[in-house]
Every structure is written in structure tokens, then in C-alpha cells.
Design goal:
With 78 residues, the protein is an all-alpha fold. 68% of the residues lie in helices and 0% in strands.
């Protein structure tokens, strides 16, 4: 097994999320769907034997992308 990290397909796609949000009225449900889909993908990759460090990096990248998307989408004026 190599110590070099392998490329990970992104679990979060901002453009796809924007499209999904345009098609659905409930943003919370849309984000929940996105999270559930990512979790299912990570679980399958784990069961397929993918390196755990790669999966952890993939999940962290997903959460970062999701939070960034939410932060940019809403007006957070105090």
C-alpha cells in the first residue's frame, strides 16, 4: 500500500446543490438529502476497502464545502 494519498472524487458539488435547491422549496431537506447521499457514498467506499485516511479527508472536505455553501447562500446580517 502506498503512503501517497489517492485522489478523491468530491462528495459535495456546489453547482449540483444550487440546482437541487432551485428544484425544491425546503432548503433544510435539500441539505439533509445531500448529507445522507454523502454518508451513503462514504459507507460504500469503506465497505469496498478504501483507505480510511482517504475517507476521513473526503468527509472533511465534504463538510467544509457544505458549510461554505450554506455560509455564502444566506445573508448573515446581525
Amino acid at each position: 500500500m502506498s503512503d501517497t494519498p489517492t485522489a478523491v472524487a468530491p462528495l459535495f458539488d456546489a453547482e449540483q446543490m444550487d440546482q437541487y435547491l432551485e428544484e425544491h422549496d425546503d432548503a433544510l431537506s435539500a441539505y439533509r438529502h445531500c448529507i445522507a447521499t454523502a454518508e451513503a457514498g462514504l459507507e460504500q467506499r469503506y465497505r469496498d476497502g478504501e483507505d480510511i485516511a482517504t475517507l476521513v479527508r473526503g468527509r472533511a472536505t465534504f463538510v467544509d464545502g457544505l458549510l461554505h455553501h450554506i455560509w455564502q447562500r444566506y445573508d448573515w446580517q446581525e
